[in-house]
Amino acid sequence: MALLRNRDLGGTRYQMREKLFDVGDDFWIDTEEDRHAFKVDGKALRLRSTFVLEGPSGEELLRIQERKLRIRGTMELERDGRSVGTVKKALISPLRDRFTIELADGRELTAKGNVVDHEYEIERDGRKIAEISKRWFRIRDAYGIEIAPDEDDVLILAAAVCIDEMAHD
Q1: How far apart are CA 147 and CA 130, in angstroms?
Q2: Which of 42, 67, 107, 164 is the least crowded, having the fewest Cβ atoms under 10 Å away?
Q3: Model's pTM, two decimal places?
C-alpha cells in the first residue's frame, strides 16, 4: 500500500475506503500494513444512521448514532452505553467545511478543511491531532487517517466516520 508520502504527526496511520453503498454499509479500517484494525458495522433497516466500530474479533468498541430532529447534523458517540462525545456540523462555514466534536469531559475538537474530498485536519486547542487525506494513496477510493501518538484512535476514527456520513448525506 502506498500510504502517506510525508508523516507530519509521527502517529498511527490507517486506511479507510470510501463507503460504497452496500447493504448495511459495513467496511474495514486497515493499518498501513494492510491488516484489518477495525470494522465499521452499519446497522441496516434503522430509522436513523447507526454504526458500530468493532475490533477485529467483533467486540463493540464504540457506537455511533445519528440524532434526528436537530437543526444541524448531529451524531452521538457512545462507549459502553455512555456518551463520550457529539459530532456536529457547523451551521455556517463559508470557506471550508467545519465540524465540532464535543467530548463528554468538556474538551472540544474541531475538524476543518475540505471534508467532501477527504482533505481535512482534526485539532484540539489549535494543535493538529489527526490528518485525513486522499492524496496519500494511489488507490482511487481510499483515504488515509494519521492520528498523533497518545490520542484515542477509536474516538478519532469514529469521529471521521461521523464526518464522512454527515458530509455525504
Answers
A1: 4
A2: 107
A3: 0.86
